[in-house]
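Subject: Predicted fold for Vesicle-associated protein 1-1-like, 237 residues

User T.R. writes:
Posting the sequence so we have a shared reference for the thread.
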Amino acid sequence: MSSKELLGIEPLELKFPFELKKQISCSLQLSNKTDEYVAFKVKTTSPKKYCVRPNSGIVLPRSTCDVIVTMQAQREAPPDMQCKDKFLLQSVIVNQGVTARDITPEMFAKESGNVVDEVKLRVVYVSPPQPPSPVPEESEEGSSPRPSLSDNRSLNAAELIAATREYADPQEKSSETMALISRLTEEKNSAIQQNSKLRQEVELLRQEVSKQLGGFSFMFVMIIALLGILLGYLVKT
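User M.O. replies:
I've generated the structure tokens; pasting them so everyone works from the same file.
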């Protein structure tokens, strides 16, 4: 901050990691290294495109204030990712005890004889951070090897852990699935064996009843068989 500037501004460029259809925010820090009360106001060439909070306020002596600038979701990317939007931060010394509610546009009017400090800020679009590249598979015989993760940049510890988990999780899920299938198959086979055993017992019971009752009605025998099958179904469930 030069001797003429009332507020230090960091950074002097508003850098937005541009992504389509997504709101993006960046922050400014205003520093008052004087012993005066300083009022500020933020203006932009595209007021419908950006939201500034707070867009005006008071920075107390020897203190700082954070300003959040949010760009509304954009449907189209600008040509060559170049942005012509500009911001203007105006600041002026005010009387002690003045609050943000007391700020008026006239405070920043040079025509009224006020000493207004102005700093222009430009907007820069940057590429969003890229996710870690997947671990390349081993190249087939006769084909050129695929580029490794270390070709363009080295992985840090966090990225290595993320890549390991990305490939470890499907294996764990596969083991759990195979165990579940095996258990269900065993239960199914056990139920089939129990049902077959019950059918044999019902058949033996039917033959035994036929021997003992001789000319007993066929309907009674069918009822006994149906009861046996129903009993087998209940035991199975």
